TrEMBL record, chain A:
Pfam families in the cross-refs: Complex1_LYR_2
Protein name: Protein FMC1 homolog
UniProt cross-references to InterPro entries, sorted A to Z: FMC1_homologue (IPR037667)
Residue ranges of coiled coil: none
PANTHER family xrefs: PROTEIN FMC1 HOMOLOG (PTHR31716)
Segments crossing the lipid bilayer: none
Functional description taken from the UniProt entry: Plays a role in the assembly/stability of the mitochondrial membrane ATP synthase (F(1)F(0) ATP synthase or Complex V).
Automatic annotation (TrEMBL), chain B:
Entry membrane topology: Peripheral membrane protein
Lineage: Eukaryota, Metazoa, Chordata, Craniata, Vertebrata
Protein name: ATP synthase mitochondrial F1 complex assembly factor 2
PANTHER family linked to this entry: ATP SYNTHASE MITOCHONDRIAL F1 COMPLEX ASSEMBLY FACTOR 2, ATP SYNTHASE MITOCHONDRIAL F1 COMPLEX ASSEMBLY FACTOR 2/ATP12 PROTEIN, MITOCHONDRIAL PRECURSOR
Family designation: Belongs to the ATP12 family.
Subcellular location: Mitochondrion inner membrane
The entry's keywords: Chaperone, Membrane, Mitochondrion, Mitochondrion inner membrane, Transit peptide
Job description of the protein: Plays a role in the assembly of the F1 component of the mitochondrial ATP synthase (ATPase).
Assembly description: Interacts with ATP5F1B; involved in the assembly of the F1 component of the mitochondrial ATP synthase (ATPase). Interacts with FMC1.
GO cellular component: mitochondrial inner membrane
Pfam family, one: ATP12
Amino acid sequence: MAALSSPLRLCRGILREIRAIKGPEYKQSLAYNYVLDQFRKNQITGERYCRAQEEALHASHSYLCLLTSTRQHLALYDIYHGKGQRDTEEMAGIVGLRLPTQPGGKGWEK
Amino acid sequence: MRRLTYIQMPPNQSQALKLLLSVNSKSYSIITERKKFYEDVSISHGEGGMFEINLDQRKLKTPGGKLFTAPNEALAIAVANEWDTQKDVLKFYSMHMTTLCNTALDNPTFRSKDQMITAALKYLETDTICYRVEEPPSLVELQNNEWDPVLNWIEDRYNVVIGSSTNILGPEIPQATMNTFRQHLGSYNFWSLTGLEYVITQLKSVVLAFALIDKHITVEQAVLLSRLEEEFQIGHWGNVEWAHDVDLYELRARTAAGALFVHFSSESSTVKRKLMQD
């Protein structure tokens, strides 16, 4: 079985991600309250080995991974992803040229 | 800008939309970004115990025009959080949970459970874990050390024979194995199956997908094992941030979303109260 982080680490990690996204008012966000609630609920168990608890732990680990990797992916996307093709007029403008205009319209245009 | 020609003037708005959709057959959302048009995101109870997402006062809809509904609170909150995360520009390509829900709700390619199961099992014939190299020796060793344990685990867990192969055609999967997996996949509901097929497609491996969904390995481990040869080459030749890292984080995000989606769609969480004994 994979070595999962402790519940405390996961909870802190998820809340840290939420704070990174939302900023100062992160405590009012939906996700914040729900996550805390879930962690509290799943804590209470008398069993030494609780299947449901392990599953919840795995799910929270996956959620932390989702939040972290989405953020990291977006950060790189913003840096590296192409901006797409520009309009012909814009492109001409970059090198200081203007597109020619034909008052009667070009031959093939209706 | 695409030109749209109407054959006749449609009498009302919805007919116009239908005509547009029939003319423009690739209509299922090619838009990747748009401006943010709401401030607050919240969830609310809908009919039949489903949850709806509210963007300001408006209810979220799927690209197909249906009302967006999630079967439980956890999934609804995960989706709501994705919408809440967006800043001035909505980046749809980063909203994986939403995309998965939309696919499950709309089923835009009209597939049945059986078709999805067949498509998913097709990946087994060329499963990443089973496709081994013969050289260089260090990669062979790496593959054996990292992949064999997972292969043994799944063969044990499901009582099947898969095996690995260095043959170009891949391993011979016995029919009994296919039957066992087909039966197992059939026990998942449509939503879970959507997620499961998605994970299989992302990881390019049925074995790894099962290991992840059965919570035997974490998302990071699954992604690492899926990209084992790439990681090996990176270790040898160096890392290229704009290719390797982008791929890595995107794969992690998608796989994590898929795994979470399956977990939320198939779980039935009940709180059992034990009697206090003193």
